[in-house]
UniProtKB/TrEMBL annotation:
Alphabetical list of Pfam families matching this protein: GntR, UTRA
Keywords (A to Z) from UniProt: DNA-binding, Transcription, Transcription regulation
Entry GO MF terms: DNA binding; DNA-binding transcription factor activity
Top-level taxon: Bacteria
InterPro entries with a match to the protein in the record: Bact_HTH_transcr_reg, Chorismate_lyase_/UTRA_dom_sf, Tscrpt_reg_HTH_GntR, UTRA, WH-like_DNA-bd_sf, WH_DNA-bd_sf
GO BP annotations, alphabetical order: negative regulation of DNA-templated transcription
Keyword Nucleotide-binding: no
SMART domains cross-referenced by the UniProt entry: HTH_GNTR, UTRA
Descriptive protein name: GntR family transcriptional regulator
HTH gntR-type domain residues: 12-80
Organism of origin: Nonomuraea jiangxiensis
Length: 263
């Protein structure tokens, strides 16, 4: 279908006009998440512009995260990213997704009692070898594999957790409502890393694709560690929003502490 040609008399660059026209089409539902956009030549004919203009517009859309370009296949409307709010609220991914009207389920790949490694023991404030519960989940948002999460909890805190079905429910809600474990605050570290082979297979991405690796320790109101997890998020689907505050006269600190959780 031939579209209205762009305004060549405008001071607004042609590529930006095309970029905005495509965004309007996506927002209006003409191109839905996962849909393939018209080819470069089709866009040239539809909007009466050069291939250089089309390529620049597509490049800007890719940079902004609105489309995904696949070599030999074309350009596709990107899936909407799930935002997790860091610092402002202490919620889990299950609560974040369902509050936005999405669906969340987990493939529980491991749930058992194991001795704590030195790393896990240090995070949970227990002795190496003390019993902990390890919970390994592949989590799906709207049936798309989104994140792998390996969670460790002191066994004495909630031994009956080994009998729970955690495919659909929030771990945090279960801990609070079922076991009286209140999580007050958390410390999180975030870094961008290439996806290892096992994580890439689980998330259905290429090995070495960028992922966001999160490690977090959560604490009870009395300061006692109650949970430690390591999560690998797909970099193309996840976005984290952070509230920053400037304190006059505060010394520069290159380490940003993020208080939140992801369970």
């Amino acid at each position: 279908m031939t579209r209205q040609r762009l305004d060549r008399e405008s001071f607004v660059p042609m590529y930006y006009q095309l970029q905005q026209a495509l965004i309007q089409d996506m927002d209006a539902g003409m191109h839905r998440p996962g849909d393939r956009l018209p080819s470069e030549s089709e866009l040239c004919d539809s909007y009466g512009v050069s291939r250089t203009v089309v390529r620049q517009a597509l490049r800007e859309l890719e940079i902004s995260g609105r489309i995904v370009r696949r070599k030999g296949q074309g350009s596709f409307v990107a899936l909407p990213k799930t935002s997790e709010l860091l610092v402002q609220s202490l919620t889990g991914l299950h609560e974040d997704v369902t509050s936005r009207g999405g669906t969340m389920r987990s493939d529980v790949r491991r749930l058992e009692r194991v001795p704590a490694t030195p790393e896990v023991a240090a995070e949970l404030g227990i002795a190496p070898g003390d019993p902990v519960i390890v919970l390994d989940r592949l989590r799906f948002v709207n049936e798309v594999p989104w994140v792998t999460v390996v969670t460790y909890l002191p066994y004495a805190l909630c031994p009956r957790l080994l009998e729970e079905d955690l495919t659909q429910q929030s771990l945090y809600a279960l801990l609070e409502d079922g076991y009286g474990v209140e999580i007050s605050w958390g410390r999180r570290r975030v870094e961008a890393v290439p996806a290892p082979a096992a994580v890439a297979r689980a998330l259905e991405i290429r090995r070495g694709s960028p992922i966001l690796l999160l490690s977090s320790t959560s604490y009870a109101p009395d300061g006692r560690p109650v949970e430690y997890f390591v999560a690998s998020h797909r970099g193309d689907l996840s976005r984290f929003e952070v509230r920053l505050e400037r304190r006059k006269g505060a010394p520069y600190n290159p380490l940003l502490t993020l208080q939140s959780a992801d369970t």
